[in-house]
Structure to design on (295 residues):
């Protein structure tokens, strides 16, 4: 099956005679919502541009094109900002987020945000796409932030990517395990471990245990707000600098030392696994150098 992307259209060489809707389902790359939308809007055509009706049978060897672009765009105010882009193609933009940056402005917070920086990047590079965040990071958490350039890209990668977070805590006694504590929201902005909360699972592995601190790799088996921060606090080893969860104060650290460091995903077009790494930020590297390596 030949698949390639051009001008917001996915071109596919048909492998089996079928009605168009059934064939799109058989590919296992499109969501039901997208299939229904493109059929309704007649956004499926032959390679020569001739539209394909919803009941039309397509034949083996024919080439079809599915439009996955956006007709409605985001309305964030474009602002020139510092985006550390670590991966980009026609479907995805991945940046290494700085700490102390918000994703988008709200009614109570209208300061410059990453969405505005991305909007400016799209305009400068003639990218016609709505901004869709695949994952979210707390304001003071740094690292990998994935933006999908279409609903197709968002739906495909949302359940099909693996992220690894890195954090520094006070010396932790375990080397690896799965933390299983349900989380319940405690107003206004923190979470506590409580059996009445939502099931929350965090897998971790200790990478470095020096002096009084531990460098830990985390993988989220569930995706709850503040999950890593709340779990480590409940375990009695909060992340360094995490004011909301009892973390140790360090002069040059003004946020929790938590960083989304790697992501891997199967690319829907190339069908190859993509691996992206986001280098640690300056405060994170400095802490490791001064408190865990130097004596």
């Amino acid at each position: 099956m030949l698949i390639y992307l051009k001008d917001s259209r996915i071109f596919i060489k048909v492998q089996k005679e079928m009605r168009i809707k059934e064939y799109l389902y058989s590919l296992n790359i499109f969501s039901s919502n997208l299939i229904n939308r493109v059929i309704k809007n007649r956004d499926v055509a032959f390679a020569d541009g001739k539209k394909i009706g919803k009941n039309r049978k397509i034949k083996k060897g024919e080439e079809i094109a599915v439009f996955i672009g956006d007709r409605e765009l985001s309305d964030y105010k474009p602002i020139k900002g510092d985006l550390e882009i670590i991966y980009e193609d026609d479907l995805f933009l991945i940046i290494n987020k700085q700490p102390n940056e918000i994703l988008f402005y709200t009614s109570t917070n209208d300061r410059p945000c990453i969405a505005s920086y991305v909007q400016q990047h799209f305009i400068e590079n003639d990218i016609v796409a709505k901004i869709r965040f695949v994952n979210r990071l707390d304001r003071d958490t740094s690292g990998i932030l994935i933006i999908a350039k279409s609903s197709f890209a968002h739906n495909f990668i949302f359940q099909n990517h693996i992220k690894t977070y890195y954090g520094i805590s006070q010396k932790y006694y375990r080397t690896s395990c799965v933390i299983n504590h349900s989380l319940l929201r405690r107003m206004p902005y923190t979470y506590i471990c409580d059996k009445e909360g939502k099931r929350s699972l965090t897998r971790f592995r200790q990478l470095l245990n020096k002096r009084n601190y531990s460098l830990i790799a985390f993988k989220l088996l569930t995706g709850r707000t503040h999950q890593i921060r709340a779990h480590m606090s409940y375990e009695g080893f909060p992340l360094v600098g995490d004011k909301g969860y009892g973390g140790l104060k360090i002069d040059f650290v003004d946020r929790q030392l938590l960083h989304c460091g790697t992501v891997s995903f199967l690319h829907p077009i190339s069908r190859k696994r993509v691996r992206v790494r986001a280098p640690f930020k300056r405060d994170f590297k400095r802490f490791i150098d001064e408190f865990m390596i130097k004596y």
The chain is about 20% helix and 30% strand. Residues 70-157 form a domain with the Pseudouridine synthase fold (CATH 3.30.2350.10).
